[in-house]
Amino acid sequence: MFSKKHVVAVATACVVVASVGTASASPVVSGTGASKVVDKSFTTLASPTGEDPILRQGNSKFGLVHIKQGGKHGDKANHPYGAKAKKKWQQAFFNGVCAKIKNTYALYCHPYGRGKKKKTYCVYVDFADWKFNGKNMGQKGIVTAYWSKGQKGSKGRDTCLAKKDD
């Protein structure tokens, strides 16, 4: 049996953990067009707002459309979006934030491969509230996801940051 002192300490710790980072996050809303949520199966223990990342349909600047077009440079070869790629995205989310770009904008990295085939998977997520047609849709979600050659820096962070405009 636990003493009152232990129960109070555990309850206090739970309250503190539950409230970290969730105060400013609005609920995610799926809409039509670019705002449609196409994948919400991802999970992470490390996000600036305490939310799990989502993938929206997006447009040429973010989301699934942006990834399918090969990012802003049209490089479809390093922007896969199938089941295997999404597993790498999830591994990046499990690794935690490897660079916080802004308060609600994070980079997740997953290094993989060996020798000359070393690569790093880079996933950028914008957790900031996003408006679509004047309506708050909650987080914008995954902006882009791609692999890059090399594994420089912790978890490949420097490899991703060198190509951050994709």
How would you describe this structure to a colleague?
The protein has 166 residues and is of the alpha+beta class. It has one domain (26-162). Helices cover 25% and strands 29% of the residues. The protein has helices at 4-19, 63-68, 83-95, 157-162, and strands spanning 37-39, 55-56, 97-102, 105-112, 119-132, 135-149. It has a four-stranded antiparallel beta sheet. A two-stranded antiparallel ribbon has the order 1-2. The longest helix has 16 residues, at 4-19. Residues 4-23 have low confidence and may be disordered.
Describe the structure using short key phrases.
single chain; 166 residues; alpha+beta; four-stranded antiparallel β-sheet; two-stranded antiparallel sheet
Name the helix and strand elements from N-terminus to C-terminus, one letter apiece: HEEHHEEEEH
**Radius of gyration, rounded?**
18 Å
Give the rounded overall mean pLDDT.
84
For the terminal residues, how far apart are their CA atoms? 56 Å
Proportion of beta-strand residues = 25-35%
Structural class: alpha+beta
Largest sheet: 4 strands, antiparallel
Unreliable stretches, pLDDT < 50, 5 or more residues?
A: 4-23
Query: Could you tell me the number of beta strands?
Result: 6
Structurally, the number of domains stands at 1
- As a percent range, the share of helical residues equals 10-25%
Strand order of the largest sheet: 3-4-5-6
What does the overall shape look like? globular
Note the total helix count.
4
